[in-house]
């Protein structure tokens, strides 16, 4: 969510590379984070088989995690973006 907020809402980001940046973030998750944690990036990929097999241990993390992560990523980006302005820009409202 942090990356998506950065490339889609920030005027300084180059629009032509938004898809490439999001794709590179997904590639980073697949190649590095996936093998380390063994988790899937798609919650439905974990929830579906767990429901079919009636194995609910640890399933809550696939429901709560994406929601908390999206909120945390959006808040972190908004915080960093709001602190990026100089004090004179904040008082005058200039962008």
TrEMBL record:
It holds the Pfam family MIP. InterPro entries: Aquaporin-like, Aquaporin_transptr, MIP. Its main location: membrane. One of its GO terms (molecular function) is channel activity. Keywords: Membrane, Transmembrane, Transmembrane helix, Transport. The chain crosses the membrane at residues 17-38, 59-80. GO terms for cellular component: membrane. It is found in: Membrane. It is a multi-pass membrane protein. Belongs to the MIP/aquaporin (TC 1.A.8) family. PANTHER family: AQUAPORIN NIP-TYPE, AQUAPORIN NIP2-1. This is Uncharacterized protein. The lineage of its organism: Eukaryota, Viridiplantae, Streptophyta, Embryophyta, Tracheophyta.
């Amino acid at each position: 969510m942090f990356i998506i907020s950065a490339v889609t809402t920030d005027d300084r980001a180059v629009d032509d590379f938004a898809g490439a940046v999001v794709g590179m973030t997904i590639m980073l998750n697949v190649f590095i984070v996936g093998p380390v944690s063994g988790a899937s990036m798609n919650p439905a990929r974990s929830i579906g088989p767990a429901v079919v097999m009636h194995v609910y241990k640890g399933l809550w993390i696939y429901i709560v995690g994406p929601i908390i992560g999206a909120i945390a990523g959006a808040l972190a980006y908004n915080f960093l973006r709001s602190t990026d302005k100089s004090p004179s820009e904040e008082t005058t409202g200039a962008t």
